[in-house]
Amino acid sequence: MTGVWSDQSSLVARKIGDVRLGALRKPADLLHHELIGSDADTSILQGFSAMGVPVKRENFVLRTDDFIAQWRAVQAGLGVGFCASYMADNEPDVMQVLAGALKM
Question: What is the pLDDT at residue 6?
């Protein structure tokens, strides 16, 4: 994400439908969902590794070190991100998943 408009007029974004991926019951279920996280910061990867879940950078559909961009992507419904629980609690369009299962 660069924060600037593309000059490529052939690029089009539009919603083509909804896909349900199912409820998250354990951390490994995150491998079947769209993940949003940091690019250079590896703390999320280290946290998953400590739980025995083999998450790699390639599992993230959006990687940026700009936390505001990550948060906006989560709010827009682009995927599952990682934030302080009080942020999700105060956002009606964001729901907390795996409460208590992930400690960073």
Answer: 57
Class of the CATH domain delimited by 27-89:
alpha beta
Q: How far apart are CA 50 and CA 76, in angstroms?
A: 29
Alpha-carbon distance of 23 to 12, in angstroms, equals 30
Q: Quick count: other Cβ atoms within 10 Å of Cβ 42?
A: 12
Task: Give which of 59, 88, 90, 72 is closest to 99, Cα–Cα.
Answer: 88
Nearest alpha carbon to residue 50 among 102, 100, 96, 99: 102
Q: What is the pLDDT of residue 104?
A: 53
Top pLDDT among 17 and 40 is at: 40
Q: Domain spans of the chain? A: 27-89
Instruction: Provide the whole-model pTM.
Output: 0.70
